[in-house]
Amino acid sequence: MLNQTVLTGNLGADPEMFYSSEGNPVASFNIAFNSGKKKSGKKKTGWIKVAAFGKLAEISEKYLHKGARIGVIGMIDQQNWETDGGDKRSSFQINANSLEFIKTDGRGFEENQNSGETPF
Predict the structure, then answer these.
(1) How high is the pLDDT of residue 107?
(2) Partner of 46 for a Cys bridge, out of 32, 35, 85, 107, CB 3.0 to 4.6 A?
(3) What pTM does this model have?
(4) What band does 116 get if pLDDT is binned at 50, 70 and 90?
């Protein structure tokens, strides 16, 4: 079964960076996307969590920011857990395989322009 999704949206906050128990970088952020229209005619906004790993996580932390518009290609992953009260919960996230920078404020790019280094 194929599990691949493509989504564009805007970051709701700067990415949060942390490291796995093995020391691998992980970036986590939420993106807002248009999920149709309400009966009132206004657009509905949906939110989904995105996780980026390794080099992609480092790139996310350095170049992405709240409000940046990006495209994400990745796999949908379901997270399941149980609350302290015994209730079962689940949520979905996209584990990113690639990111497309559609609109950013240029954060992080200036230093690479001076060094001649390609950011990614």
Answers:
(1) 66
(2) 35
(3) 0.80
(4) very low
Please state the three-class secondary structure of the chain as a single string.
CCCCEEEEEEECCCCEEEECCCCCEEEEEEEEEEEEECCCCCEEEEEEEEEEECHHHHHHHHHCCCCCEEEEEEEEEEEEEECCCCCEEEEEEEEEEEEEEEECCCCCHHHHHHHCCCCC
Distance separating alpha carbons of residues 66 and 63, to the nearest angstrom: 10
CATH label, 5-112, candidates 3.30.2420.10, 3.40.47.10, 3.40.190.10, 2.40.50.140:
2.40.50.140
| Residue 73 burial by Cβ neighbours in a 10 Å radius (0-12, 13-18, 19+) | middle
For the chain, which residues make up each domain, given as ranges?
5-112
